[in-house]
Every structure is written in C-alpha cells, then in structure tokens.
C-alpha cells in the first residue's frame, strides 16, 4: 500500500532526525534520468505474514506509479499485481513476480521497461503499516455497496449496517486487500486502496489531528516503522511525493492503464491482467508527457 506517503509530510514538520529512522534499500536502477519526477510506491507483505496467495516468497501486494511531468501534471497509476509484463532476465510473467524473484531492484527495472520512465525514488510500505496508520488517525470511513465475506482478505462487509462505515486499521487493511470477492478483481481493489489513502490523508490533515500531539507522534511512529525507501530518498523528496499525490487525486488523474482482459491465460502462471497493446503504449507516452485526461484511464 501507498498510505505512508502522507506520513512524509507530517515527519518533515515534526521530526528533525527522521531520515536516520527510515528503513533503506538498494532499489534504483541507475538508468539515465527521464523528464519529471517519478516515484514507485509498492505495498509489500515482505515483513508481514498475514497474506497468502500462489506466489512464492515475498510479494508486492500493490504497485502504484506516481509521476509529476515537466509541465506539472501529476498522475497516480495503479499497475494491477497480475499485470502481464516482461521481467528483465526472466521473461514474461505477472508483474508482482519481479518482487518475488529479486525484490525492489528488479521491480523497479520491470516498471521502467513497461513505462519508459526512470524511477527516481522507491517507497515500500509493509502492509501492517496500513492498519497502524489508520489506527493512528483514529479510524476512517470507507464505502462498499455490496455484501462481502471474503476468507482470503478477511473482509466481512454487511450493507445492512450501511454502505459507508467507520473502520479501524484491521478492517481497513482487509478492505484494501480484498479482490477475489470483487467482480472487477484488481481494478476494484485499486479503487479501494486509493479510497483508503484519501480517507487517511483527510483525517491526518484535519484540525483535530494537527492539534493532537499524541496523534502526531502515532503517525510518525507508524510511518518510520513500516516505511522502506531507496538510499537516495530524503524527507523533502517524500514531501514532494505527498504534494504530487494530492494533486493527482484532486485532478482525478488516477486509475489503471487501458486493459484488454482481466482473465488472460498465457499458460503456466494462471490468469493475468493483459494491457491493451493498441492503447497502453500511448497511455504511458501521455503519462510521460503530462497529457493524460480522466478518460485515459481504464473504464472497463
């Protein structure tokens, strides 16, 4: 999950020595810079034990590409974890297999090959950090308009209690992870992940949180415990990421690339998400150039 992006802003204001408290990892490829600024934000269960699926080893539970183009346009693109891509050195596979094979560095190289962008900064969030952040702001309100009893994510949702409900960190995490009970799979999950992000950002920035030292400290503690960044990342770069995220959300430039199939069967890896050959390259070109519109994103 991407939730800890908001913590960067709070850390910048509250803690002088936060940089030394962040987890660091070798992630960047060293490829030549491309215009603009690009963050790869990965939700991972590498430090958690709660998630199980068919991928061996640590997994990237969610992958989001946040880009601020030279003209100032910011966009937040969800890359479904089952997206069928070419993984350098391994051939074609689901995109989240890159993390399982070689961790952050290969994930970065895979996304760079797909998008034509050089990743400037890498941010990884341990999935338990989602629950910690939601609890740190005192819970959030999220919405879902159908009943769910999903064993894989642990989400139980009863619409007789309302389509919008207040949830704690544990339920927010299940809400963010649920996909097998969603008819749109990863697409619906991406929408819920962004809904949780927006709710946490809103709650963290309200007056009650800003004037509550206990809440401020809880946010900082949750962030530094769960956040892993590349070795070159600084607190100002994370603060710029917060601003880019808020801009993308405000302008509605969020979503998945154009998708051909949610149930593509290439053989040997199960069902995968197939991007549209005719439009996905154009999508990433528009992303790089800062010419995306709301209509550019998947609407299947």
Short description:
With 300 residues, the protein is α+β, with helices and mostly antiparallel strands. 37% of the residues lie in helices and 23% in strands.
Describe this structure in words.
With 300 residues, the protein is an alpha+beta fold. The protein has one domain (5-133, 190-293): Nucleotidyltransferase, domain 5. Helices cover 37% and strands 23% of the residues. The protein contains 10 helices and 15 strands. The strands form 5 sheets. The chain has a 7-stranded mixed β-sheet, with helices on both faces. A two-stranded antiparallel ribbon has the order 5-6. Strands 8-11 form a two-stranded antiparallel ribbon. A hairpin with a 3-residue loop joins β5 (84-87) and β6. α1 (5-14) packs across α8, α1 crosses α9 (235-251) and α4 runs antiparallel to α8 (213-226). The chain is globular, with a radius of gyration of 18 Å. The protein starts with a helix and ends in an 11-residue tail after the last helix.
């Amino acid at each position: 999950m991407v939730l800890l992006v908001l913590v960067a802003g709070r850390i910048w204001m509250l803690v002088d020595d936060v940089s030394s408290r962040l987890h660091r990892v070798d992630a960047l490829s060293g490829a030549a810079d491309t215009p603009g600024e690009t963050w790869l934000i990965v939700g991972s269960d590498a430090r958690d034990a709660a998630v199980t699926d068919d991928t061996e080893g640590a997994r990237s539970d969610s992958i989001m590409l946040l880009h601020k183009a030279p003209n100032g346009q910011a966009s937040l693109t969800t890359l479904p974890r089952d997206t069928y891509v070419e993984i350098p050195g391994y051939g074609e596979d689901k995109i989240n297999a890159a993390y399982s094979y070689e961790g952050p560095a290969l994930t970065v190289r895979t996304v760079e090959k797909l998008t034509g962008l050089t990743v400037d900064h890498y941010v990884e969030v341990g999935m338990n950090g989602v629950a910690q952040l939601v609890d740190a702001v005192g819970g959030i309100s999220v919405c879902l308009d159908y009943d769910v009893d999903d064993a894989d994510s642990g989400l139980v949702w009863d619409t007789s209690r309302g389509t919008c409900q207040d949830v704690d960190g544990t339920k927010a995490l299940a809400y963010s992870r649920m996909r097998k009970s969603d008819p749109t799979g990863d697409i619906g999950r991406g929408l819920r992940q962004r809904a949780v992000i927006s709710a946490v950002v809103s709650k963290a920035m309200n007056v009650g949180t800003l004037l509550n030292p206990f809440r401020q400290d809880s946010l900082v503690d949750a962030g530094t415990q769960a956040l892993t960044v590349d070795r070159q990342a600084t607190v100002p770069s994370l603060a710029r990421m917060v601003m880019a995220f808020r801009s993308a959300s405000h302008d509605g430039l969020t979503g998945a690339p154009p998708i051909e199939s949610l149930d593509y069967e290439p053989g040997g890896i199960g069902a995968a998400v197939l991007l549209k050959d005719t439009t996905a390259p154009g999508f990433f070109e528009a992303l790089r150039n800062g010419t995306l519109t709301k209509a550019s994103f998947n609407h299947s």
